[in-house]
Amino acid sequence: MIVTYAEIDGFRNLSGVSFAPDPKYNIIVGANAQGKTNLLEAMWILSGCRSFRGSKEKDYVCLGGSRMSSAVKILDSVREQKISFEMTGGSNPQKLIQLNGVKQRGTRALFDVFKCIAFIPDDTEIIKGSPEKRRNFVDMAASQLNPVFVMHLNKNNAIMNQRNALLKNIPQYGGNADILEVWDRQASREGALISWMRNEYITKINGICGRLYKTVSGGTEELTLEYKSNVYKAEDFENPCGEAAYEQYYRKLRETAEYDIRTGSTHSGVNRDEIIIKINGVSARDYGSQGQIKSAALVMKLAQAEIYMKKSKDAPVVFLDDVMGELDENRQRFVFDMIKDMQVFVTTPNESALLPEIKGKILRVSGGTISEEA
User: Contact 46/69 with Cβ under 8 angstroms?
Assistant: First the structure.
């Protein structure tokens, strides 16, 4: 899969940007705060994923601007397709999302069409950040393999929002706690399915991460990932996800129902899962050095790309945002060897910091506009 054309206007500080990317390497060069990351983000949102910066949609429109637009043409193994995203500014923003000229109700359809993987400096939060950071990484990566996963995640989130709202109202209005049962029955099915999907993905990525990390560390260190469910034991996943799994999840929710009511939030289920990441048998989050944490995060993203490549006929598009300059020559070579069959967009303040053999189109960004060099 490659991006053949991009057109962006009014997205943050970008103005009148249009270019035809190189099918291999696109080197985006510029000083800080000129729009390099904005350029990647404007394309990234067309994948249907939330901003890799964690931005809210209202922030897409340039400060003081009235509208933004971002559009790409992508070529996969079957055909060329066009995705566009337009939004007005102000207190009541209006969105128009189109796929091949057909208006979409949301970004759900885009997720099946445009596959991207972004490497950003904040990726170290996957290792050293909160459990939510690790859950989000696994959920997004697993959803790229099976977009149905997104539906289950969204449905579970909606159920949890309703359940948590009810938990706050029961003490206030003297409601009956038994009313939770209707939400717990629904949550048990969605939660069980999410648990099995997470476990399946961690099983896939664990072996690849171990192999890649051993290469990065010169064979001296071992990286392992383990899915720690809040509801299930490891041996439970040896059986198919079915009625027994739903019932087990339901019982867990009922066990903590009284405590949930007292505190006003849900304390059981997939929202409490953890992914344990270890280097040489000890917690990378608690004891990993800065170099180990950076390498582990990098390897997890590379493993994500490899898994997707094995499943799909199309390689994902890769965005490298100011991460290569922090890597030594050996690690840069390792990364570029892994992504050599993918289209790459890499940002850097200085192209001389990249390997000399990385040749492609140079896009110089200044003040939200770009100029091209072959």
Answer: no
Label residues 234-259 b or e (16+ Cβ within 10 Å = b).
eebbeeebeeebbebbbebbbebbee
Global pTM reads 0.85
Task: Kindly state the tokens that stand for 268.
Answer: 């059981």
- Could you report how far apart the first and last alpha carbons of the chain are, in Å? 21
Neighbours of 172 (CB within 10 A): 8
The residue among 100, 55, 98, 95 whose CA lies nearest residue 74 is 100
Kindly state the tokens that stand for 317: 């598009």
Q: Are 208 and 303 in contact (CB under 8 A)?
A: yes
- Condensed to tens digits (0 to 9), the pLDDT of residues 81-137 reads 999 999 988 778 888 999 999 998 877 778 778 888 888 888 899 999 999 999 999
Distance of alpha carbon 231 from alpha carbon 245, whole angstroms: 9
SS3 state at 21? coil
Tens of pLDDT, residues 324-345: 777 777 888 888 888 888 999 9
